[in-house]
Amino acid sequence: MPEDNKNKPATPNGDKNIFQKVAEGAGHIAIGLGTVAMQSTRDPVSTTYPDEMPTLYPTSRHRLALNVNPITGEHLCIACKQCERVCPDQCITVIPDPTAKGKVQEFYIDQGLCMFCGLCTEVCPTDCIINTVDFEMSEYSREALVYDIKKLTLKREESDFYFQFKGLDLPKPKKAAAEATPAS
């Protein structure tokens, strides 16, 4: 009677007996031990990070910073706001100097909001904004990740390093106001 089989509770062992299950379990354990043995003979992939810094490349995209002219030390930002317009995260704010054309008064980047896409570095006509190889930016608050112009601006030595490291062309010095106006 097939109806009697329906009402019977299912056996916990199913169709396999206990010896088959033990053999199957031992096979899975052997596969796992084989994987461990194979991996233990390979060289480690990870490094001891705090003691040994990883090799980073010129195309690495990490913390954003503002370059200065490594020769003269003058700021390279001309307040064109192209980086602000192209940023998909809207994490860049550029405030031009109202008294002088081509100078920046304030510059803010929210590093916590930035996705490090590199679009701002590509559109910058003066190579002012760059991705550095500094990736250690942990802070205790979100507000500390909003960098102002002082925290963003690199020193001359750092800018010189990045111009050489990334293979950027050295900028031409800006003409002084006295040189730009012809004498009458």
Helix content: 25-40%
Strand percent estimate? 5-15%
How many distinct beta strands? 5
Briefly, what CATH class of the domain at 64-171?
Answer: Alpha Beta
Report the mean per-residue pLDDT as an integer.
Answer: 85
Second-tier CATH architecture of the domain at 64-171: 2-Layer Sandwich
| Low-pLDDT ranges | none
Can you give me a brief rundown of this structure?
The protein has helices at 2-7, 18-40, 82-86, 119-123, 149-152, 156-166, 177-180, and strands at 64-66, 92-96, 104-110, 129-131, 146-147.
Descriptive overview:
By secondary structure, the chain is α+β, with helices and mostly antiparallel strands. It has seven helices and five strands. A hairpin with a 7-residue loop joins strand 2 and strand 3. It has a domain at 64-171: Alpha-Beta Plaits (2-Layer Sandwich). Helix content is 32%, strand content 11%.
Topology of this structure?
Blueprint: H1 2-7, H2 18-40, E1 64-66, H3 82-86, E2 92-96, E3 104-110, H4 119-123, E4 129-131, E5 146-147, H5 149-152, H6 156-166, H7 177-180
Antiparallel strand pairs: 1-4, 2-3, 3-5
Features:
single chain; 184 residues; alpha+beta; Alpha-Beta Plaits; three-stranded antiparallel β-sheet; 32% helix
